[in-house]
Amino acid sequence: MDAHRYYSGNSNLWFLGLMEYHIYVDGSKLKDSVGYGVVILKDGEVIEELYGTVPDELVQGTEQIAGEIFAVKKAIEWCQRNGIDEVSIFYDYNGIEKWAIGDWKTNLPLTREYAEFVRKSGIKINWNKVDSHTKNIWNDRADQLAKMGSISLEKPIPTDLQREAEGFIKFLQLNNYKANLKGIYNSSSAKIQVFKEETDLGHINIYLTKKEGIILRLHELKDKSYESIFDSLWKDYLYGEKQLLLF
Question: In this predicted model, what pLDDT tens digit does every residue of 90-140 receive, in sequence order?
């Protein structure tokens, strides 16, 4: 068996090999905006999600293909930042692999730059084709993120989400953590980077939902032992402590 997982047809059967890092990529176009989505897993668990809007000048008439390409580039850049030298990338558009390995001609500046970027990345990539509409949960999640990314980020920030994110940051700082707001995305989620002394603990996400209102998600923490700590701090912040920050 090769040292990575394969997705088997329409079933949900996975064969687990030796590869640690699996990344699912996708692109999407809604109206005139193109987005990308990336789901990063280690040992079968999601450790980070990336999404955003592809700059109009880079789309070059390629529509969602630019999103697919941008997703791979973001995945590779993540590997480079985190010292990962080998990864399995899962995609549903053939060109993602074909351009990268030279099977397809790179007739556009976008595809030429992409192929060169992959070749020079220094990352060993195991390419894996996932059939569309096969109910692969991670491919579906990458598609969902890409759709989120294709929504303009220029919308006004909801006052309550911004207030909760900034308030919780202050509360974390009072509890001897360093914290900074990385951004508020698609008017529905805030990402906070947290540190303990000089150790990067990862990200905390605050979501604005219709059913539950403001909720906390801790799936992007690097050290899972901090999940209960931040969950407790969040509850302390919500139920009384944050009132002290208003004065």
Answer: 999 999 999 999 999 998 899 999 999 999 999 999 999 998 766 789 999
The residue segments making up the domain with residue 185 are 159-245
The angle, 0 to 180 degrees and rounded to 10, between the axes of the packed helices 109-119 and 64-81 is: 20
Q: Measured between alpha carbons, how far is residue 79 from residues 23, 28, 83, 100 in Å?
A: 10, 23, 6, 17
Amino acid at 41: L
CA angle 139, 145, 150 (to 5 degrees): 125
Q: H-helix or E-strand containing 72?
A: helix 64-81
Helices (H), 137-226: 137-149, 159-174
- Whether residue 92 lies inside any domain: the answer is yes
Can you tell me which residue has the tokens 């508020």? 184
Q: Tell me if 154 is assigned to some domain.
A: no
Tens of pLDDT, residue by residue over 213-241, are 889 999 999 999 999 999 999 988 887 55
**CB-based contacts of 111, cutoff 8 Å, min separation 6:** 69, 95, 99, 104
Q: What's the first-to-final CA gap in the chain, in angstroms? A: 62
Residues 124 and 169 in one domain: no
In angstroms, the CA 146 to CA 51 distance is: 6
Select from 120, 149, 178 the last residue of a domain: 149
Closest CA to 39 of 222, 219, 214: 219
